[in-house]
Design goal:
The chain has 2 domains: 1-37 and 121-176 and 281-359, 3-Layer(bba) Sandwich (FAD/NAD(P)-binding domain), CATH 3.50.50.60; 40-104 and 177-279 and 361-395, D-Amino Acid Oxidase, Chain A, domain 2 (2-Layer Sandwich), CATH 3.30.9. Helix content is 33%, strand content 28%. It has 12 helices and 19 strands. α1 (10-19) runs parallel beside α9, α2 crosses α3 (60-67) and α9 (308-326) packs antiparallel against α10 (334-358). The structure holds flavin-adenine dinucleotide. The site of flavin-adenine dinucleotide has 34 residues, from α1, β3, β9, β13 and α8.
Length: 395
Amino acid sequence: MKCVIAGAGVAGCIVARALARVPGLEVICLEQVAASDHSESGTGLNVGPNAVRALLEHDPQLHAAVLARSYLWHTWRISLTDGTELFRLPLSQVADNPGIRIRWSELYTALRGEAAGLIRYDTRITAVSRAAANGRLSVEIDASGQPERIDDIDLLVAGDGRYSLVRKLLAGAPPITQHGVVIFRLLVPDTSGGLVDDYEQWFNGPNRLLAFRVPGEAVYIAGTFPIEPGAPVPDSARDGAWLASLYTPHARPPSAQCAWMIEQIRENVDNIHWARLQESPPLYALPDAPVLLLGDAAHGMVPTLGQGATQAIEDACVAARLLEAGLREPHAEVAALITRFAALRDERIRFAMQFSLEASDTLLAGADPVAGTLAKTEPAFLSQLERLYRDITRV
Ligand SMILES: Cc1cc2nc3c(=O)[nH]c(=O)nc-3n(C[C@H](O)[C@H](O)[C@H](O)COP(=O)(O)OP(=O)(O)OC[C@H]3O[C@@H](n4cnc5c(N)ncnc54)[C@H](O)[C@@H]3O)c2cc1C
């Protein structure tokens, strides 16, 4: 049998490692970037306790490799930009273990390093087709500028991220819902003198900063501000002074933490990575093709609770377990395995998406961050958070 994995990202690498253990299964993981690519475009990630637990249970070696490049995430604190604290949550209250904080490039380095030998870099999928005779798939690829083709694929795992070409070609581009919030991300050298460490957020009206320290003496800063739903990022945002003013409190001076971050934003506006708060509906399987969609290719969720990569890891651990066991069987039923994956994951993913959206209330135009944050100290929110962080999908 032959399995092709589209993308050596978060989900693709985890699945590739597991499938490589199946005797007689040919595993080819295709990645469009070069092996030397260490893009920081995502800059930093907080990965939830649920993914850390899922990875530990599924693949302790990979868990160790990722944790070696991370700092632990123990506490979640929310304040106003003048320093008034609203919320302080030790994660031990709602989770079995800490989450992690990591640079994007380091997460990829750890995952790809542990899948070495299985990944073909500089190899971009450009087309996918299905043979009418036997239902098997073919992919066309651009391998370092040379066109090639891989035929007779029994299983195609789409781990090719939020703009998944596999999903677009086989099921059409997913509808995207915009929620009217700009998100920007920045990684800066840690010159804060210890002001910023574990995961924190700060509000000035609905405009919010988020920051944490990551290995490599750097601080990850993300900011959000409301716009009209569907509107592009405004040109004014590219002006550091304008952007910094969104987070500068009027009545009182900014706290020392926020003064430092506001200065970083002003000085580094040209290095900012822009995005918008958006989501797309889940899709794990196709009715007539042996394709399993994972991670962002399967479900684009709003990043408010840091569940994008987190759920990509959960997806991949479940898929890896199911497929590794199922494909060892002499008459493996690929379609049945894909259906089982969808049945196991659908409710959990819908919950994670809905809860992430509900938790975005304080980022929207006209939001009251004080009332919204205080509501997050109530049992109704904390019990949902506990469900998110503790109830991982087990096969
Ligand atoms: C603003 C923002 C902030 C975020 N913050 C967080 C956070 O703090 N915590 C968190 O958990 N998540 C966060 N996320 C989400 C997270 O980045 C993604 O959910 C996660 O990376 C998805 O993993 P994946 O494996 O599905 O795809 P990816 O990790 O994106 O991997 C896809 C891979 O496929 C490759 N690829 C794509 N197309 C092709 C092709 N045609 N041929 C070959 N290869 C291809 C890509 O190069 C890439 O390596 C954030 C997202 C955004 C937008």
